[in-house]
Request: fold
Amino acid sequence: MPAQAATTLPAADFRLKATGYSGLIDDLDAALPDVGVPTVVRDGNRAATTCSPAAANRVAAFCWNSGDDDVAYWVPQGITTTADAYGEATYEGATAILVSWYDNGADGVDRGVRVSFVDYSTPSAPTYRHVLLVEPYANSAGQASFRAVNLHAGGMFWYGHHLYVAATGTGFRVFDLRHLWQTSTTNGSAIGRQADGSHQAYGYKYVLPQAFAYNQSTTGGRAAIRFSFASLDRTSTPDSVVVGEYANPGAGSRLFRFPIDHTDRMLAESADGYARATEAYDVSVQSMQGATAINGKYYLSTSDGSGNAGDLATFTPGGAVTTRHDVLPVGPENFSYWPAKGQLWSLTEYAGDRSVFAVRASAY
Reply:
């Protein structure tokens, strides 16, 4: 049904600036085996299951094993694929889907964020392994170590060797996929460099380090962006990033587009070092959980809570926001588009009813 048209905002008032690259990565490279993306993707220790989530125009799907479907303290949020990473839809020969999960601390421990590396080379039988995201730092002895990354991780996208993860209040944390380290798994309750010289990661075999970040600021008195989710748009010229805000009923929600440079895999900067938005809209869509754009058209996922099917809305700048009700499963989250397949991928978050699925984008 039609709704009000999106309101255009002055996009250049919203900006991001990169921090420096972490020099501690070199020190940790020397201390830990660096295994690479294909090794991790092909080292799956869990098997996905077949399932049929209630999504209209569904063309693909899988579900997690029972432990990951039911776990209360890990919550899935963001999704990206090797089709984001490179146009040929593979990364060093691997075909993969990545899903972010945040630890809500329900079991008394906050492990930060993990990312599922799903081997999707055989869509009928995906396998996967969780990798812990970490932030390098110098410990009290001046030694290179790492700690958990405490984020909601509501959205992410893969671009070249960079994995961009949304940081709700600040912008992006950026992780370098050229550095995937194998750690010791002898202590499931420890993280970072230990007194015995080992490097632990709460029992996770692999960790992926943060290399730098993008921090936001605004001009013109604009309210800061809430980086609730993010996705890559490879159908724009140049490639670009779509960022959006979750908002409770009665509050405004905004969408932004930032250009990204394929030559260095960084957000495209002006001469002053800032990456500025090129599009900004107030769409006033409540409970928006994810968004992407395909050939200039925006696709939005919205949640109606734990007991109702999710909705999918679309709009083209200058036009009205149109919502298709109850076409997504309960609890839909972020979007990621796979151009060669014409597939719009998403996932659901509620324990006991979690799935990863794709719908035919052209149906909307």
